[in-house]
Here is the input.
Amino acid sequence: MGEKPVINKGLEGIYVAETKLSYIDGENSRLYYVGYSIEDLAKYSTYEEVAFLLYYYRLPTKSEYELFKAVMRESREVPDEVLSIVRNMVRRRAHPMDILRTAVSSLSALDPEIDQRSREADIRKALRILSKAPSIIAAMYRFSRGLDYIEPRNDLDHAANLIYMMHGKKPSEFEAKVLDTIFILHAEHGMNASTFASLVTASTLADIYAAVVSGISALKGPLHGGAAEAAYWQYKEIGSPDNVEAWVKNALDKKRRIMGMGHRVYKSYDPRAKIMKELDREVASKFGGEAAQLYSIATKLEEVALRELSKRGKVTIQPNVDFYTPIAYTALGIPPELFTTIFAASRIVGWTAKVIEYVENNRLIRPLDYYIGELDKKYVPLDQR
Ligand code: ACO
Here is the structure.
């Protein structure tokens, strides 16, 4: 066993690859995709354009953009056999992330290019998964309410089409922009847990569907993608801005974590949370109702939690993107159990772009663990134990 090596629990601080896809400056609240600031992309770009950027490392020309969007639109349909799987799992009350994972996995059986390993074939497959994910999410929404599946509309953009497929109504420009912004903000984010899970799978030269299924699996947990849903329930538990002071003190005394705060890389305000907070202010004033109530609880919670955490010497724990997305989701009629699936649908571009980038210069990911158990134990046959 030799001398005990340095063990980097959680692989904290370990670099595993080079990338040109995204850069996070966690000390200064900065995030870039291929060199473009997240603020500019959220303001001026669209999810489809961001997807092009992440696959091709540049913004598209007008004709490339139109062609790319057309390819995505044509790939939205989900075969009946996959919809049946979704329907059956909904009936069994499976978790939406498990349904999404299983549906994506089952799509692999129907992809004629599954065994083709080239950059272009991988982008084509990634686009198919990316384009079908919202249809799968909308199917879950409809089936779980006893409603029929609505076919995708080819005259709507990616985010607008998802809202349409859920509610059967074309969204307003503002509603579509809100969801499109959420898609952009979640598209890619360095070497996070789910991206690393995708990369581990892809590094064995397993196919891109397998990599995406790994990503979805890793994203499910409340320390990663599941935090927005947990934040929503936290706001419901708090119930009113008047309860925030007492709730925070009690939570921190009990060593409870405030969901939607803290981040392994950001030791400053997550720039995505800042964009979401500004958008939510508009959402709350336009929509009122539950969204406005959640917004008033969340903003108060931020203020009190930052003050109380700072008193405890924890100044680096600040809101992350999941803190403010529940408000926008609620305004769009997206229920909490589907929040993480939208995150997953957005991040498919990040997982696949990173996997495609990594396998071009592939190295099997195979770390080590340090054995601390016994050796040379005597085997006792079953009937003698
Ligand atoms: N609320 C209260 N205290 C916190 C929080 C929080 N949200 N996050 C961290 N802390 C405290 C920890 O209790 C710990 O305190 P201690 O040193 O007294 O034990 C200290 O801060 C350091 O925490 P770590 O867990 O070591 O930090 P790590 O880098 O592992 O945590 C994580 C990152 C997992 C995101 C954490 O901040 C957390 O659990 N946050 C809540 C869940 C969440 O919002 N996740 C979404 C992340 S963003 C994303 O995936 C899109």
